[in-house]
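Morning!

This is the sequence you dropped in the shared folder:
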Amino acid sequence: MNNRLARKVYIYFVIIIALTLVTVGVTGYWRSSNELENQYEGLLTQIVDNVLHETDLYLKNYERATVSILTSPVVKEALDLPRNTTTGFYTSEIAMKGVFQPVLINNPEISMTYIIGYNGFQATDFNIHIVSFNYKAFQEYVEQMKEDDEINGKLTIQDSGFLDGHLTLVRKLADRTSSKSFKGIMGFELKIGELNTLWKGIKLGQSGYFFIVNDRGKILYHPDSSRIGKQLDGMHFNSVEANKDQIFELPGEPGRVFFSRKSDYSGWTLVASMSVAEQRKPISDLRQTTLIVGIVTLILASFLAYRFGQSIVRPVRLLENGMRQTAKGQWTKVPLTGSRDEMDQLITSYNTMVSRLEELVERVYETELRNQENLMKRQLAEFQSLQLQINPHFLYNTLEIIICYAVIQKSSEIKDIVRSLSYMLRYSIRTDLEEITVVNELKHILYFMSIMKYRNQREFEIDVRIPADYFLDSMVRLTLQPLVENVFKHAFPDGIEDTHTIIIDAWKDEADFYVTVEDNGCGMDAESLLQLSTRLMNSREESLLDTQPTFEGSIGLLNVHNRIQMVFGQQYGLSVQSERGVGTKVTIRMPSSSANKVISV
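The structure's back. Tokens below.
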């Protein structure tokens, strides 16, 4: 091993130096025989063409990305809907998410995509989380685009997007029967930073650079970031416009040549510049210096490579042997080489690490054995404490109903209420380790609704849309019923009406399982929603210290949220979406049953 490693270091070192010297010397000598004026002029032209071509290809790629959206039956159906068809708009907007998502996934540079129909339909989707979305400003932005005659059925590029730091790629959607009759607008918000990354990778020698301006003289890109977004000097802009596709000079820029070309696709003009002195610099001194330095460097490198290889092989071998023994469980220390250099320091650090690891492993092992049982008991007690915090008011109200029915009349209603209550109590206080599934939770809700029928003096059906394939997936006990009860308490404060609905749905992605409880009740204002979301984020820290919610109804949600996190981890739990006068949607996020099995406690 000693000889092999030293030989490899020596040979690789010599090959790299020799190959570098030969390549640089031969290439430099060959390039010096050509006419530098023509070469740099051709180089400027080629680089400008390549940059424009790559930029146009980059932008055209998003024009191709719109084909799948334009040809989607969902888009055509949405744009053909009569004006103010609320139900159709809602259904089409949900279906539109499936149209947008493939484009957003395949094009992560797109931050936002939207379709605005002249019939009042609107659908948007985001590739990033936008903390503050100015809906009014967005509507004004869209109205401006509707009035812009330059925007037609082809993809139009606007260098000032609705979102800061973005371009807007927009096109009007034509009617099926007429290419001039437009029914809506489709747009992308594209991160301009992606184009900046593409442009920054283009180099024009030591002092060369290029910049890009639009047809109004606004600078879209410049190596000096402070000039981006500003207007190009009037004289310079006139010179650029008057000298397209040829070499020229700019006023106030002595000793430099410029070349500009305008893109027919984007309408942008790219201007490249190089130093005249750099073009004409003789290379004879470079060739001579390269030869002398190359020979000296090769000799010196060969000697250093040999010494370097010998100096590292022996300590490395000692460390290798020590690590091999440590990997087998034998805490072996490596003897010092006596050189007192970094290798000896490395060996000393390794020996210290081995000693500390040996001590720490022993301590951790002993401590883990002592604390494991106590930790499990503590978690079990905390879990059971949270589970027992379920609000008992419902049970009290149910008992009052039973008493009223018993006094007034003898009927089968008492039997139904008591039987449903019995099943619910039995389900709630179970402490065995039996697995709880989605169908168990739905059955629990069934008995709950049986009691609510008598409590509200009317029938009310919950719309369960969970696919049958998910019925045997695992859940935490008592998660759905508190959410449904919360809807009756707070979403319908003035009583149940025929228009009220509660929808329970579920879906999966690659790793997680989601269950939602959605209503069309009174909803929450932004401030209350923010308070609730904050409490859900901090519920783990405050759950054992504060059991009184800041506003009525949050303790049931916090209880369910904490129990889910205790079973699955901090990344899971509840999230709430709500809008005043529209309704509330609570989403339960859990790992998929294929990855984890829940054991109820």
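Headline: The CA atoms of residues 31 and 432 lie 83 Å apart.

More detail when I'm at my desk.
O.
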